[in-house]
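User: Second chain of the day. Same drill as before.
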Amino acid sequence: MLEMLVLAFLVVGGAVAHPSVRCPNNFDYSVGRSCFKYVTDNMLLYDHARTYCQRNLGGRLAVLDSRRKLKATIDFFHEKFAEEEREGGVPTAWVEGHWIPGTTHLRYGNGKVDKRPHWMTSTRNKDTGKLFRWPTSSLFGWEATCIAVSLWKPGIPDLGVRASAGFYNVPCNSIYWTHALCEVTN
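Assistant: Same format as last time:
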């Protein structure tokens, strides 16, 4: 009888309920079994960001290989936008994955290939006025295969203004420095 009561509490709507993930207090949000930490105290090259996540948190750069993880990240970036903007930037972070040149596909750090990733919307270069689409080889060249995620402009749904958020490709370890988004899986 007790086993039946325990089973009744574990089954919710026909699916087995999983206990919520308990993330350390210094983590920012969780999705499924993963805890995420947006590292704002360092601007890093890609390889340094990967090493930071491994050595300091026992994790990896975030693998945003599901719409749910990406949406949670963009939602979190909406919360951080005003703070980052006051400091002269926008929420941006390295994530684990690489653009496959000549395609619009991403290969995530776990090997999964996404043929329809959520790339950043078209962007106009402030200096030249040229409009380019992500992924792009025209801005940094074909070696710009590393992936970052950002919220460049928050949306205002009531006014019909769409957010400019998603992935974009940049050089891995040369001219581009940004924050790390680390993921630890429980």
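The first helix runs from residue 2 to 10.

User: Great, on to the next one.
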